[in-house]
UniProtKB/TrEMBL annotation:
Originating gene: LOC111014401
Annotated source species: Momordica charantia (Bitter gourd)
Catalytic activity field: Hydrolysis of (1->3)-beta-D-glucosidic linkages in (1->3)-beta-D-glucans
EC number: 3.2.1.39
Positions of transmembrane segments: 379-399
Molecular function via GO: glucan endo-1,3-beta-D-glucosidase activity
Record-stated family: Belongs to the glycosyl hydrolase 17 family.
A biological process from GO: carbohydrate metabolic process
Protein name: glucan endo-1,3-beta-D-glucosidase
Top EC class, one word: hydrolase
Keyword presence, RNA-binding: no
InterPro entries to which the protein is assigned, alphabetical: GH (IPR017853), Glyco_hydro_17 (IPR000490), Glyco_hydro_17_plant (IPR044965)
Record keywords, A-Z: Glycosidase, Hydrolase, Membrane, Signal, Transmembrane, Transmembrane helix
Keyword Transmembrane: yes
Length: 400
């Protein structure tokens, strides 16, 4: 009688567990909590140690972080903090990653697997601004590298928590004004479309580095700086979509959505992986001022806090990583390149947009344990659920 009762219970329980498990497995991997993130660049010899950076980020309540490599000192410092980190494979590794599956697998084994789950690595960026760049050899290597890294992640059973992406500059577009006219450039399209097809299959977003600062600098005579800074302005009107834009960032994002729709990927989400405004520049970079940087970043922070979409995609809540955490004194190029930081090398604020500077850890507001482990837990809980299902099925077969 007892065996019969247990058997009936298991017969009812197993379908429910299977439904839950397969629903869980079908969820898209999310690499972004909330709407606000930051790029932690480290091309400098005077910025705080990773441990102090953790203190700074937690005090500012910035949870989403991107780095441009997989530096182990950073990954160790982030252990147990609840910070969500996207690591990167630098461009110079992509050709090797594309040609060698074992190289990709070994990279993931060395730079990802040992740090999980204590360090919340939630994404791997495959290079940065490859398509549209000057190294054409990388264009053909990008897709192969992305596939090999994804296969490595999947082989290690990490595909449920690690999202694979790559960030694009606006050089991939042939035209972006008005937003509805945007398409991928003819020279880029042959590489972009198969990449989009792969990312569509694995549920990855389209990552865009969008800089109203650079757009304004390229044509200050015809672009209203208020439009670039989220200030009051007439904005622009897109006659094809009958939409009005009161700021340039929204227009840049909707241009990307238009290009994606033209390529056949209307449902792909756009995430801004870099955006910011320089606080200092050369003589020919007049817009790079502390006041403009403060205005842009303060208004951008308010824009993201509203948790709303763009005119073309109002239901897709905008998510953005700000560039950058620090001024980086060793970057090459114009002076503006070294002055995007929200914080100075000593950890003090570059200008006030509502963040606190570096302070003792006792003043930090800890993250909720539930929120810290919620997204990451899906993989580990899913694994345990699958084990439970197998065990239950085995028991059922045994009882029969």
């Amino acid at each position: 009688m007892m065996i019969t009762t247990r058997l009936c219970f298991l017969r009812r329980l197993i379908p429910l567990l299977l439904v839950f498990f397969f629903t869980l497995a079908s969820l898209t991997v999310e690499a972004f909590t909330g709407t606000y993130g930051i790029n932690y660049g480290r091309i400098a010899n005077n910025i705080p140690s990773p441990d102090k950076v953790v203190t700074l980020l937690r005090a500012a309540k910035i949870k989403n972080v991107r780095i441009y490599d997989a530096d182990h000192s950073v990954l160790k410092a982030f252990s147990g903090t609840g910070l969500e980190i996207v690591i990167s494979i630098p461009n110079e590794y992509l050709k090797d990653m594309s040609a060698n599956e074992d190289r990709a697998l070994n990279w993931v084994k060395q730079n990802v697997q040992p740090f999980l789950p204590e360090t919340h690595i939630c994404g791997i960026a495959i290079g940065n601004e490859v398509l549209g760049g000057s190294d054409y050899g990388l264009w053909s290597a990008l897709l192969g590298a992305a596939k090999n890294v994804y296969n490595a992640v999947k082989k290690l059973n990490l595909d449920g928590i690690i999202q694979i992406t790559t960030a694009h500059s606006q050089a991939v577009f042939s035209n972006s004004f008005p937003p509805s006219s945007c398409k991928f450039g003819d020279n880029v399209a042959q590489y972009m479309k198969p990449l989009l097809e792969f990312f569509s299959q694995i549920g990855s977003p389209f990552c865009l580095n969008a800089y109203p600062f650079l757009a304004y600098m390229s044509d200050p005579g015809n672009i209203d700086i208020n439009y670039a800074l989220f200030l009051s302005t007439e904005g622009i009107y897109d006659p094809k979509t009958d939409l009005h834009y009161d700021n340039m960032l929204d227009a840049q994002i909707d241009a990307a959505y238009a290009a994606l729709e033209d390529a056949g990927y209307k449902d792909m989400e756009v995430i801004v992986t870099e955006t910011g405004w320089a606080s200092r520049g050369d003589d020919n970079e007049k817009a790079a001022t502390v006041n403009n940087a403060q205005t842009y970043n303060y208004n951008l922070r308010k824009r993201l806090a509203k948790k709303k979409g763009t005119p073309l995609r109002p239901k897709n809540v905008l998510k953005a990583y700000i560039f950058a955490l620090f001024n980086e004194n060793l970057k090459w190029g114009p002076t503006s390149e070294r002055n995007y930081g929200l914080f100075k090398p000593d950890g003090s604020i570059s200008y006030d947009i509502g963040f606190q500077g570096l302070q003792s850890s006792s003043a930090c507001s800890p993250f909720s344990t539930i929120k810290e482990h919620g997204a990451r837990g899906s993989y580990y809980y899913g694994h345990h659920i699958s084990v439970a299902i197998v065990s239950a099925v085995t028991l059922l077969l045994f009882l029969q």
